[in-house]
Write a structure and sequence with these properties.
Elements lengths: L1 H15 L6 E3 L2 E8 L6 E6 L1 H6 L5 H7 L6 H10 L4 E6 L4 H17 L6 E5 L10 H4 L7 E6 L2 E7 L7 H10 L3
Parallel strand pairs: 4-5
Antiparallel strand pairs: 1-2, 2-3, 3-5, 4-6, 6-7
Helix pairs in contact: 3-5, 4-5, 4-7
Length: 180
Amino acid sequence: MRILIAAALAIAGLAACKARQPMVSGHAVHAYEIVADTETVVLKGLISRADIEADTVHFNWFKQNMQLGMADAAAADAFRKKGSQFQVVIFGGTWCHDTQNLLPQFYRLADVSGYNANNITLIGVDRAKTTLDNLHSAFHITNVPTFIVMKDGTEVGRVVEYGKYGQIDKELGEIVNTIK
C-alpha cells in the first residue's frame, strides 16, 4: 500500500508541479513542495522522517519531542507482533503544534517496537489541510495529525489528533490488536 501511494503521488505529482522536490531515498519516494509561510516551513506532499530530521533549524521540535516520554508497552508489543500485517498512513502539518507533539510520539512507538519504516507513509498538509493530488479528500482528512492503520489497502482504524484518551500510542495499539 505504501509503495502504491508513493508511486501514485510521485508520478502524478512530478508531472504537475515544478516546485516539488522529488527525491529517492532507499525504498521511499519523496515528492513535496515547500509552501510559503510567514511562521515556519510547511512541507506539502509525500515526506519522510528523514526530511524532518535533516532540517534541524525549522524542525528542531522533532528531536526535542522524541526525547519526551516512553511508548506504551502494550502498543509496542502489538506493533512488534503484528508489524508485518499493516501499514500506517499519517497526515500531518509541519506547522501544526499537535503534529509537532504527536508525530515524535508515533515514531518513538515505531522505534521501540522495531516497526518497519517502509510501512509508514507520511503526508504533509498545508494550513488548509490540503495535500498534493487531493489525497486529503480520498482519506477524508479534516484534522491533523491523523494516523490511519491500513491492512491490504483497507482502513482498519484511525486516530485523529489526540484520540480518545490523549495517548495515541495506546489507541494505535488497540487498533492493531483488532487485526486478524
